[in-house]
Amino acid sequence: MWSVADRALTEGVPTSIPRRLDDENSVIPLAADVDGDVAIVTLLSWSEQDSGWEPSLWNATLVGHDGDWYRANTSGGLPPREYPLAARGPADPAGLHMRIYEAGPQHTGTGDKRWLSAAIHVTAEVETVRIGERHRPVPFHGYLPVVVRDRARAVVAAISGNGSVLETIDLRREPSDFYRELRHRDPDGWPLKIK
Questions:
Q1: DSSP class of residue 115?
Q2: Residues 145 and 42: beta-carbon distance below 8 Å
Q3: d(Cα 54, Cα 74) in Å, to the nearest integer?
Q4: What is the bridge-based pairing of β-strands 68-78 and 52-65?
Q5: Contact 143/80 with Cβ under 8 angstroms?
Q6: pLDDT exceeding 90 applies to what percent of the chain?
Q7: Running DSSP on this structure, what letter comes out for residue 49?
Q8: Whole-number Å distance between alpha carbons of 66 and 48
Q9: Is the peptide bond before 191 cis (omega within 30 degrees of 0)?
Q10: Which residue in 17, 78, 104, 153 has the most C-beta neighbors within 10 A?
Q11: Buried b (16+ CB within 10 A) or exposed e, 13-36
Q12: Are 112 and 4 in contact (CB under 8 A)?
């Protein structure tokens, strides 16, 4: 998993990726986000569950120092919304354009080495995601990691094709508030329940 995350960070996430795992593609890079000296790469790989090996979403966090990236941690193991990977669908009847599939924010590091992070899935109406002042295009599958070094820029916004803000998520909240937000954004049971 780490070698794929390292390559995605240094070479970029490929524009064309397989939609399902197989013997040649046991780890598939989906997206990456970098803010200064912290990076998160979202991956699709296998996870051992009670029912056997299942496709799962993972996030690999790397920290930069003196021009090199060092492996910090991995987290995840939840099933993707659709498998094989599919083009993201429209907003649900409740009008949700962003789902949080990894309960963040994660306050990691000490002193000036702290950051906030989350992992989201966005709908077809979202053209780009704005993280503070950074704009990120959305891949066809809609999975994106988010990492923020500056708490003042920790609002994530889903932006439509005409530039309007569809929805926002503030990563600066306390973990209990963030958990309630995650539950609010889970009306159909994904990602917390498997269909």
A1: B
A2: yes
A3: 17
A4: antiparallel
A5: yes
A6: 63
A7: E
A8: 36
A9: yes
A10: 104
A11: beeeeeeebeeeeebbbbbbbbbe
A12: no
pLDDT of residue 195: 40
Long-range pairs of 51-54 with CB within 8 A, sequence gap ≥ 24: 54/79
78-119 pLDDT, tens per residue? 899 899 999 999 998 878 899 888 855 455 565 556 888 889
The letter for the amino acid at 173 is R
Contact between residue 166 and residue 92 where contact means Cβ atoms under 8 Å apart: no
Q: Judge if the upstream peptide bond of residue 79 is cis by omega within 30 degrees of 0.
A: no
- Does residue 193 register a pLDDT over 60? no
Read off the tokens for 95.
């009008």
Q: Between residues 160 and 178, which one has the greater pLDDT? A: 160
pLDDT of 24 > 70? The answer is yes
- Please determine, for residue 48, whether its predicted confidence score (pLDDT) is greater than 70: yes
Q: With contact defined as beta carbons under 8 Å apart, do 169 and 100 qualify?
A: yes
Q: Is 174 helix (H, G, I), strand (E, B) or coil?
A: coil
Average pLDDT, integer, range 113-127: 90
Is residue 194 pLDDT above 70, yes or no? Answer: no
Q: Which two tokens stand for residue 88?
A: 């993201």
User: Token pair of 137, please?
Assistant: 């295009």
In this structure, the chain runs to a length of 195
By the 8 A CB rule, do 55 and 21 touch? yes
C-alpha to C-alpha distance for 156 and 97, rounded to whole angstroms:
12
